[in-house]
Amino acid sequence: MSDQRRPADDYEITADLPDSALHTTGTDHITLIGSNAEDTIEFYRDVLGMPLVLRQPNLDDPSQTHLFFDSGDGRIVTFFVNEDRDSDPRPQRTGIGAVHHISFSIAPERFVEIKESLDDIGHGYNEFDRGIFHSLYTRDHNGLTIELSTDKWSIPDDRRGEVLATAQRLREEEGVDFAEERHVDAALEELGIDAEKYELPDAPTGAGV
């Protein structure tokens, strides 16, 4: 029964590898059900700037085309598309097991430029300061929420989990609900990581897309 399930707060937050039969080494690719090739390429290549690196039939359903985009670090996002499917820009109504949003990294030094480029083409977005990172939120041609996120510090990729886990412990010790900049600053100092702090614009904090 649901009242017997362990709540999230019962689980330890740590960057240590769990005692598991396997350990993943990263994200290889994410595959989504797209609409048609034209609209998909127009958004992911022409708006987000992802190279289209591979195109072939869906090996499990040759009636669909499989498009592969490089998200910027060699990690791939792919789409199954068909020319008979129209795009639907209405916001998606997600349920259990569905995709809520996808977040892509953007360079902090280009953050303002990217905002301006979205303004120039009239593609709407919302901007939020999430305390430990800074993000733009928009939607693709099928209503999927897309987050364009940048870190506030130049934290090495192999230390990010350790920094976040330490910031989590510090914010719990302080008794506040959310990790804030000061918790990451303190975590970096505790771990002896010399990370550059990026200059980012002021933005609202809180929830919402």
What does this entry look like structurally?
With about 210 residues, the chain is α/β, with parallel strands linked by helices. Helices cover about 25% and strands about 25% of the residues. The protein is built from four helices and eight strands. The strands form two sheets. Strands 1-4-3-2 form a four-stranded mixed β-sheet. Strands 5-8-7-6 form a four-stranded mixed β-sheet, with no helix packed on it. Strand 6 (about 125-130) and strand 7 (about 135-140) form a beta hairpin. Helix 3 (about 160-175) packs across helix 4. The chain is globular and about 55 Å long. It starts with about 30 loop residues before the first strand and ends in an 18-residue tail after the last helix.
Features:
about 210 residues, alpha/beta, four-stranded mixed sheet, 4 helices, 8 strands, globular
User: What would you call the shape?
Assistant: globular
The neighbouring-strand order within the major sheet is: 1-4-3-2
Sheet of most strands: 4 strands, mixed
Structural class: alpha/beta
> Unreliable runs, pLDDT <50, ≥5 residues?
none
Counting DSSP H or I runs of 4 or more residues, the number of helices is 4
Return the string of H and E elements: EHEEEEHEEEHH
Give the termini distance in whole angstroms: 33 Å
Q: Report strand %.
A: 15-25%
Mean pLDDT score: 92
Beta-strand segment tally: 8
